[in-house]
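Bug #77: duplicate submission created two jobs. Keeping one. Sequence:
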Amino acid sequence: MVPKNIQFGGGAAASVFSPIALAIVLIAGVLICVLPRKKAVVPFLFAGMLIPINQVWVVAGLHFPMFRVLALFGFARMARAKISGKDKIFSGGMNKIDWAVIILTVFTAVDGALLWQSSAEITFQMGNAFTVFGLYFLVRYLLQTEEDVKGALRAMSLVLIILAPTIIYEHNTGNNVYYGLLGGLHAAKLEHSAVRDGFLRAQGPFGHAILAGTFAGFMMPLFVGWWSKDKGKLDRTWAVLGLIAASIIPFMVGSSTALFALLAGVGALCLWPMRRHLRLARWGIVGTLIAGQLYMTAPVWHIISDVSLSDGSSSYHRYMLVDQCIRHFWVWALVGTKDYASWGWDMWDLCNQYVATADPSGLVPLIALITILVVGFKYIGKARKHYEGDRQNEFFVWAIGCSFFANVIAFFGVSYWDQTIIGWYLVLAIVAAVTLPARITQAARADAPIEAFIQRPSLSIAAPPSAGSGIAQPVHLQKDNRDYTYQRRELRGDVGRRPSRY
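Kept job's structure:
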């Protein structure tokens, strides 16, 4: 049965927020508008991540959690930058990830409106679209260079340094200092930690303990990459502190999903020596899944139900979500369905990002989500190859890919709906900013005539002297085309496939 607080009409009927929270958000909003772009990311991340989602400002029936208020200031900042022409809105222009995010958001809104045909649903979908465009494009605007990325990681390190002690305190006492101090919607329930099998599940300012642990888990690889790349003592100190905090939090929330996010990042980092052989690893995984499907009596995705890292895990529920989603493909494929809650016990709880995209919204948004993941890995892979030989930059890009992979794994156990989406959008923006130099270089090589980059090699030999000259004249003979062909392949970026004769 769906809990009443998340049913239609279960939200706040009037504004419910603490003056402290509102003051922090307004100060952060002003700073977003007036600070230089490189510094504006600090107040945005500080307020966006640490203010609970239950702090809600209601205006004419429209709900503005505090991160939507921050998005309002972000729109104002981007509009000023666009009008003045002093700042680019997006470094490198719109990329494929940006377009996939737009398609995902627009089709989710349109499909929801077509499915429910209700003015309330239109309002709900407009609010979601406002959140995505406001937060995602603000993060994309604020992170345009590698230096911007470092500034964002410093801010995230500070956020995690604040989160870790408070979450440890909550895990040991059961008292949530954020909801206890700030109040807000359903604060009387949220200020006391949930308990599962005697384990206190700390959640900090997040909407759920799983989201708190997952956020810390997928942030961890970024600090490893930052520590490896930056040799400055101060930055390395920030990176180490952020790394320690991010590694502790997943163990405080009583969630297998959070631990899997952390372990996925760690495991991916350990694959660094295999970085040039990932194609073989990917096909090995595909082959293993096919072999498992042929051998197992249950579908291969039944493996999800057997994977657990904490007591009381609901891994079987995750398996059923995937299973019912696949079995009812033709029910939801067009514009989604209203009936997924009737497919089994607790099927209303779409704690799987892929299923939560597919069931209520249809096939196009699911394809858009998968496109974001595929394009992100493609950008990361090309950037890593671009930096081959530069170990620090190459490993930094690899660590970003590890964080990206941790999100892919976490999506099987949770869907993002609170401020965790800011962390997810931050990872996407980091991918766009750090891979931009490689993408620009590859685009320039692809667009420019190859002959402008290549001098065909030649050999000089002495020809017989011309009549009456007595001097041997050099004759230039063209070498065979093997070197020339390989040079073309290198400039096209296809350095991993040498001709067989080599």
